[in-house]
Specification:
There is one protein chain. The strands form two sheets. The protein has a ten-stranded antiparallel β-barrel. Strands 10-11 form a two-stranded antiparallel ribbon. It is elongated, with a radius of gyration of 22 Å. Helices cover 9% and strands 65% of the residues. The longest helix is centred in the N-terminal third of the chain and has 27 residues. By secondary structure, the chain is mainly beta.
């Protein structure tokens, strides 16, 4: 069975499971249909993530090898250009619908050309690195439906299911101390150059979302976690922090967010980790 067939089957299975979960929830809640009002939440954030990735590019012009670029975690604030998150939620009774949007531009200098894939299983590792600069732009969106399963004086929690989309584009300038020669005749990779490429992935996800209320005061601990697969072999996301309710309509939060993807070795995005501190606000209306 091919990798593309496996990914297709994963996507179909996740979609079936998603609709199955929603169907069970609907069946169980018909008798207790909510007639209350809609409530809306808007949550803008600033995020300062490091980026860790393995990206396999197509062979650039004049080369017969495909470079694998390794991006290592860099300083949170030194190279980040912009990282914005907006989460919107609509809730009615126990049901909620969410959309999470992440846009990020990051420049990283802590990178290296890890290896050159000349095809046919011929992969040549290299230690000829002098300097590789990577500019990365990414857009991530997660949409889903939630159903509240716990609602008491200290804990509120939803089960969530949905879809996540990742798009990432990287522009790479590499500079090696010499050309790399492949194992077969005529196989070469130039010591310097530039290449730009993008890739994307759709995945189904499921998880939990909620908050822990600390005593009778205004402090609370928000939390979120999900895991899924589809076009990726695995993706997962987690967030927690501390928040304070200043008004019924306004909360402020700080915390830490982590997102990860593990893809097939033949994909452009072989692996990606975004991780770092986050600060934001929540407007309720």
């Amino acid at each position: 069975m091919t990798a593309s067939t496996n990914r297709t089957m994963n996507i179909v299975t996740l979609i079936v499971l998603l609709f199955g979960v929603v169907g069970v929830m609907l069946h169980g809640s018909v008798a207790a249909a909510d007639t209350g009002k809609w409530h809306f939440t808007m949550q803008p954030y600033l995020w300062a993530p490091t980026i860790e990735a393995d990206l396999k590019f197509s062979a650039p012009d004049g080369s017969t090898g495909e470079p694998v670029i390794e991006i290592d975690p860099d300083d949170y604030f030194e190279n980040i250009d912009i990282a914005l998150i907006v989460t919107a939620m609509a809730r009615k009774g126990k049901w909620s619908f969410t959309a999470d949007f992440v846009y990020m531009e990051v420049s990283s200098s802590d990178n290296r050309v890890r290896a050159i894939d000349f095809g046919g299983g011929d992969i040549v590792s290299t230690s000829l690195e002098i300097g590789t600069d990577v500019d990365t732009t990414s857009f991530i969106t997660t949409v889903g439906v939630g159903y509240q399963v716990i609602d008491n004086t200290w804990l509120k929690m939803d089960l969530v299911a949905g879809l996540r989309y990742l798009w990432l584009e990287s522009d790479v300038d590499w500079n090696l101390s010499g050309d790399i020669i492949g194992p077969a005749s005529g196989q070469t990779f130039a010591r310097s150059g530039n290449i730009t490429q993008d890739g994307d992935a759709w995945n189904g996800i499921g998880g939990i979302r909620g908050q822990i209320l600390l005593g009778s005061g205004n402090w609370f601990i928000p939390f979120y976690g999900d895991i899924g697969a589809g076009e990726s072999e695995l993706t997962w996301s987690a967030y927690t922090g501390i928040g304070y309710s200043f008004k019924q309509w306004f909360d402020a939060m700080i915390g830490y967010r982590h997102m990860a993807w593990d893809n097939d070795d033949e994909e452009f995005i072989q692996g990606l980790i975004l991780s770092g501190p986050i600060i934001g606000a929540r407007f309720n209306f």
